[in-house]
Amino acid sequence: MTKVELEETLEKLKYLDVPICELSTKINGTFLRLIKQVEAEASRKEIRFRPEYYLGTGWGCVNKSISIEIPFWFQNETLIGIEDEMAYDGVENESEIKMGLRHEFGHAINYAYKLYLDPEWKSIFGNFNKKYRDNYRFNPWSKRHVKHLPDYYAQKHPDEDWAETFAVWLTSGSNWRRVYAKTPALKKLLYVDKKMGEIAGEEPLNTRVKRDVPIEKVKMTIREFYGADYEDVGPSEQLLEDVDAMKRIFPNGFHSKRNLRDAWKLVHKYSPLIISKLSEELNVPHHSAGRVLRVLESICKTYDLKTRQGDEDEKIIAMSVYLSKKFSQD
User: Fold this and answer.
1) CA 128 and chain centroid, separation
2) Is 229 inside any structural domain?
3) 269 and 297 share a domain?
4) Are residues 213 and 250 in the same domain?
5) What does the pLDDT look like over 10-53, one tens digit per residue?
């Protein structure tokens, strides 16, 4: 395992025990950039409306509100990596994320301007109040619906049909007039084009903000959310043992932050002494002992482990005992 791989794995292990409610609620990085790209597409269509975005446990737009839920794992690269390992189909790439954003934008703009109440909307897309089912039958050869998200999502419900049609219409370079020419789906796209022209520059009729399950209300840890074991992200049993050992030797939770120092600095300072001791007593090669101590140092950095000044002898002895047992077993 390279240093980069080690650091990435340790970051994943650290996050597993973090309650989701303790994650930052701020949307940033790559995802914020993709939101701006989709909103730029809307601006080019002269759409001034902007939804509200918040982090939750999945994709969605709260019914009859302008609030779009974004999965919490897009908050940083480590969480994205965990999702990629745990999800059946892996994590979405940037193109797929923008597809999802356009779809949810379609829901939000439908609710913002109450388009679903328009008789023409009803005649084209169907009854908005139709019962919503997670399981639905679809026709993969249908020409009445656009194809945007997987699983022929436009066929799930009239509201989804609208959102998918809007997403295709919004997508830069989709060439929807040519792609859907001579199909019943073209009528839906033309309706979207007409209605968006009518509301361009208009203030929304509905600005209701409602959050379904924002992350600040989700008490479960990331490990509980995925139903994951540590082994799912820490492929090395030895690494898991080392993490557990260092958290025992350097337990956090001090009542006072006074006289604390970083545990990794202690490990780094006394590594030569411990390596020499392991070599003399157990014949452990210097390079083998050094490699393990660098791992322990990385663990201390990742988990921000601390120790009190004056506890050096106790901690050095504890590490020496752990490493002696570790190399004796090997």
Assistant:
1) 31
2) no
3) yes
4) no
5) 888 888 888 999 999 999 888 999 999 999 999 999 999 999 99
176 and 75 within one domain: yes
Task: Give the phi and the psi of residue 27 in degrees, each rounded to 5.
Answer: -90, 125
**pLDDT greater than 70 at residue 187:** yes
Is the residue at 124 inside a domain? yes
Alpha-carbon gap, residue 132 to 118, rounded angstroms = 20
Residue with the bigger pLDDT between 284 and 122: it is 122
The rounded distance, in Å, linking the Cα atoms of 53 and 39 is 12
Q: Are residues 153 and 52 in the same domain?
A: yes
Domain of residue 116: give its range.
18-217
- Of the two residues 1 and 215, the one the predictor is more confident about is 215
Tell me the C-alpha distance between 4 and 195, whole Å: 51
- The residue from 190, 217, 244 where one domain ends is 217
**Can you read off the two tokens belonging to residue 255?**
């009542």
d(CA 104, CA 59): 8
pLDDT 10s digits, 286-297? 888 888 888 888
For the chain, counts of helices (H) and of strands (E): 13, 5
The pLDDT of residue 298 is 84
Shared-domain flag, residues 278 and 172: no
Same domain, 213 and 242: no
Strand partners, 306: 262
Q: Are residues 174 and 88 in the same domain?
A: yes
Measure CA 97 to chain center.
11
Rounded (10°) CA dihedral 234, 237, 243, 244: 120
pLDDT tens digits along 240-293: 888 889 899 998 877 677 788 899 999 999 999 999 989 988 998 888 888 888
Give me 259's structure tokens: 């006289």
Cα(322)–Cα(254) distance, integer angstroms: 23
Residue 231 lies in a domain: no
pTM for the full predicted model: 0.78
In a domain, 65, yes or no: yes
